[in-house]
Amino acid sequence: MKKLLVCTAVLLLCSIAFLQASQKVNKEVLGEHNGNEVCLYTLLNKAGNVLKLTNYGARIVRIEVPDKNGNKDNVTTGSEKLESLLRGDAFGGASIGRFANRISNAKFTLDGVEYKLTPNNSPNTLHGGRNGWFSKEWSSEVVTGSKQPAVRFSYVSPDMEEGFPGTVNISVTYTWTDKNEIIIDYAASTDKKTVINVTNHAYFNLHGVGKGYIFDHILTMNASKYTPSTPARIPTGEIRPVKDTPFDFTTPHPIGYKIGETFNNGVFQGYDDNYVLNSKAKVCATVYDPQSGRVMEVITDQPGLQFYSGMGGMQWKKAIDNGEKPTSTRSAFALETQHFPDSPNQPGFPTTVLNPGEKFKSRTIYRFSVK
């Protein structure tokens, strides 16, 4: 009888814990796209701060966190309306795959077989191709048994989708902690040898989205090297020190501290570049907004970080801010954790090959605080 009572009590406690966790996640149906349901998930932590996600592209659409005075604001571009999601920035906030960033000339060779991909950044492939994972309606579920509100998105990428070999099962789990951390856990497997590189493509403005430029944000990166690229943003294959270049954020600098100055016999326009992360760094990047006091830290197990500041403007002019209007020039930045661009064609870069029987796992954390 005692064992029965103990078991009943444990089950009751587990049920209460699950109920408490599930009450922190609200699901709303936004409509249908391609015959599939598109949903909006609202995750609420103990501090009352909000993370909003959608299964369209398994993407982040809103992050509400306080400033130094306790005033809350949204710090990421996005939309909570289906029509705006569909006509807005294709990549903003989305889970990117099968291969994040660029693959040169839309092709690569694996075990002597050349795979031709869909070119959508001519002549290259960008972020998985014309209909990459950012454009898919993922399966979704609230994670049961989680002590913090969490949602898992899943997708089956068929063999030869956008030209990539192998059927890949991918899941992306977002957990919104009481420490204002967005924990992103990726897991993938394949039935055929393939390449994989996944990231999240959120754009941030710590002033609050739609509230000015990001050049005054103070950036620090634990990256003493970067991968130089051609004008088409394809790596040359070199790995160079950032010292004495505009790419040096090993000590804190405003994002715009070198933009507009002369570099390599031209005017330096901004950043869309891959950094080689220092392997022992616990926090790979920190961004501080002196105006609001907001701080964002980036933590990852990936070897690279793509820093995007805007190159004369947002790359995609239709990025939507929280006011449902196009985002202004130079008003958001991205820090995308990743393997290096064009890795399948660069033998000197860390491998992105995934074999059958192997499990790809990766974790990235965006942590928000104030000072």
From TrEMBL:
Q: Where is the active site?
A: 201 (proton donor), 336 (proton acceptor)
Which GO-annotated molecular functions does the record name?
Answer: aldose 1-epimerase activity; carbohydrate binding
Q: Which CDD domains match?
A: galactose_mutarotase_like
Signal peptide stretch:
1-19
Superkingdom of the organism of origin: Bacteria
Q: Which GO cellular component terms, listed alphabetically, does the Swiss-Prot or TrEMBL entry include?
A: cytoplasm
Identify the pathway. Carbohydrate metabolism; hexose metabolism
Which E.C. number(s) belong to this protein? 5.1.3.3
Cofactor names: Ca(2+)
Per the record, the similarity remark reads: Belongs to the aldose epimerase family.
Show the SUPFAM superfamilies listed in the entry: Galactose mutarotase-like
Positions contributing to beta-D-galactose binding: 101-102, 201-203, 272
Group of enzyme by EC? isomerase
Concerning PROSITE patterns, the annotation shows:
ALDOSE_1_EPIMERASE
**Subunit composition and interactions:** Monomer.
What is the recorded name of this protein? Answer: Aldose 1-epimerase
What this protein catalyses is: alpha-D-glucose = beta-D-glucose
Question: What Pfam families does UniProt report for this protein, alphabetically?
Answer: Aldose_epim
Taxonomy-wise, where does this protein's organism fall, top ranks first? Answer: Bacteria, Pseudomonadati, Bacteroidota, Bacteroidia, Bacteroidales
Its Gene Ontology biological processes?
galactose catabolic process via UDP-galactose, Leloir pathway; glucose metabolic process
Which keywords label this protein?
Answer: Calcium, Carbohydrate metabolism, Isomerase, Signal
